[in-house]
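hiii, so i know i said id send this last week but things got crazy w the move. better late than never?? heres the sequnce for the chain we talked about at the cafe, plus the structure i predicted for it. fair warning i was half asleep when i ran it
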Amino acid sequence: MTPANLLAETQRSASVTDWPARIGWLVGLVLFIALVYWLMREGWKWRGTLQSDIPELPDAPEDTGPVRLSMSGRYHGSTTAGQWLDRIVAHGLGTRSLARLTLTDAGLEVERPGANDFFIPAAALREARLDKGIAGKVLTEGGLLVVTWAHGDKLIDSGFRSDHAAEHPEWADTLNHMINDTEGAR
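okay and structure toks below
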């Protein structure tokens, strides 16, 4: 045999996979993801603690009167009024969910399967408008119905998106007329 053949016969390629190193990196990545998730969860709980001065949300009265409007869609969250990124998480207001809105003479009832329902009395309503974003959710212009309401000493913006976006202008108009009528009666 020639020296080149002997050399080719004796050389072997290194193993392709270094399993201990690969498993070490995988374990490290899983631990890093778990740490980030835990830190996000703690931040959410801390935000709730900072907002503990917000009073409990009112329940709907037994007799709310006739239904003016009704809509099904999504609840995208609540923020401090005018600050569309300052999410409120106290009392479950930060939990996105499906929602069913019912507007009556008594106020706005928000039913949320899997999350806390809440009621906004007519006297607490301040404004309704069409907007494009709230607390990390950005949509097309006018794709979100934002209702401003007073709770305790805080003004809150709550964002809703109907399953049928064409309903939004009617909701904003009806809510604003109702608010103007309520303010005129005060």
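btw The chain is about 30% helix and 35% strand. thought thatd interest u
miss u guys!!
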